[in-house]
Amino acid sequence: MKRLLILFLLTYCTSVAFSQKISISLFNSQKNQTFVITPVSGNYSIIAGDKTIPLSLNQIVYVSRSGDSVKVRDMVTHLGTWSRVSIVGQTDNDVIRMNSVVPSMPARIYDDNLTFYVDFDRLMTLNIIDLDKYIAGVVDAEAGPNAQPEFYKAQALLARTYALGHADKHMGEGFNLCDEVHCQAYKGKSIRNEKILKATKDTHGMVAVDEENDLIVGAFHANCGGQTANSGDVWLTSHSYLTSIMDNFCKGQPSSQWEVRVPMDEWIKFLESKEVKTSNLTVNDYPFVSKERRYEYKINGVIIPTGEIRSYFKLRSSFFSIDVVSNGIRIKGRGYGHGVGLCQDGAMQMAKKGKLYPDIIHHYYKGVRITDYFETIEQDSTILHIDENVASH
To answer: Where do the H-state alpha helices sit in the chain?
Structure first.
């Protein structure tokens, strides 16, 4: 199995002997300079240099960049300036509020610990967090608060599979993953539905692997429009478990159908940008029917990938048909997203119909196996640890 172990003994955690932690870079594309930090629950201390400074609940602390160092002060006192500052909890219920002041951004709530240092011309901010709490935050951000527990279990399993399979994605920058969508969307603590955290804990350690015991690419999208896509038709890499299936579960959902009108002059401009000769075209040359997914639009001897049409006109998906209306082109589409892997709308409907999360996973990913990652890890002697400083600060 392709593995990178990110399990650590967190030096400052006293509630449990060992804790599975992962480091997430917050506001990763922002040039943050100052944060307001407020402990909400638990028992926090500032750990910096050789100092340990206890924090009270609801105490307001400012953490700012000062050159290549991190300056910390409360409402009245300059507490110190260090190269690296950690705000570390001591319990299983440590929750902290963080509000970016420069630039100004809405406050977010985070579980567990924070670490600050200056790099990449900004105040780096890492959330050192229990893996399941992070997974719950991802599920909350990616799937929303109004679904069934079995759907949340499936989504948690996929988020965990991705996190463990890509834990080295930002290792050169000093952390495991970032909070943006090219890793996984993560906006902090899951607080909108308690069922999300429960579903995450109920699937603790569970991941999906392929026939070679490698962690799968747990791709998902909002709505497949009734048919998922082959991975090889969408991406450069094809995976045997990411093959197209017919999926009736998502039909009738809000994102299952859509329509876009394009003025004829804009459509012709697009075609000419793809080197299509349009001078001899008639209205009979434009129509394109997709009862099932098609990946190429052929017109006047030129083949245009449907994905390029989607990108140019900012369509919801590349699953569509084209016809001519009086004032231009009508694009009637199905689904929302790239179409590969799990269809979230379909999976939600499966859960509502009583399907269990293994049923959902096996419906969308063919030939995969669900297994406990950590039980397998214990039997593996080729375990790679990341920098101890990332784990303990």
So the answer is: 131-143, 149-165, 194-202, 231-234, 264-273, 306-313, 344-352, 357-364, 373-377, 388-392
